[in-house]
Amino acid sequence: MSAISRTVHIGSSHGLHARPAKLFAQAAKDSGIPVTIAKGSGAPVNAASILGVISLGVEHGDYVTLTADGDGAETTLDLLSELLTTDHDAE
């Protein structure tokens, strides 16, 4: 099975700062499959690395591309996409 990608619009009003980045990275890690995240045309980073995710400097309204490879990649991207489109700063 080849890797699948999905482009997602960031919903958190303060972007992927510490709390949403931590939630996202933990979910990517828990998926058990390799997942990367890239901002724009930038180089992809390991989505399970909170420091890698924060280093992208993702802001509200940015688009990122998620790529996952392995069993359950589609389900994993569904879950991660939902985390990214949710405004975690509104709670």
Characterization of the model:
- This protein has 91 residues and is α+β, with helices and mostly antiparallel strands.
- The protein has one domain: HPr-like (Histidine-containing Protein, Chain: A, 2-Layer Sandwich).
- It is built from three helices and four strands, in the order βαββαβα.
- It has helices at 18-31, 50-55, 73-85, and strands spanning 4-9, 35-39, 45-46, 63-68.
- It has a four-stranded antiparallel beta sheet, with helices on one face.
- β2 and β3 form a beta hairpin.
- The longest helix is centred in the first third of the chain and has 14 residues, at 18-31.
- The radius of gyration is 12 Å and the shape is globular.
Record keyword descriptors for this entry.
4 strands; Histidine-containing Protein, Chain: A; 91 residues; 21% strand; alpha+beta
Beginning-to-end CA distance, first to last residue = 38 Å
Percent helix, as a range, is 25-40%
User: From N to C, what is the helix and strand string?
Assistant: EHEEHEH
Computed CA radius of gyration, to the nearest angstrom = 12 Å
Rough shape? Answer: globular
Low-confidence stretches: none
How can the largest sheet be summarized? 4 strands, antiparallel
How many helices does DSSP assign? 3
Mean pLDDT across all amino acids: 93
How many β-strands, per DSSP?
4
- If strands are numbered along the chain, what order do they take across the biggest sheet? 1-4-2-3
CATH superfamily: HPr-like
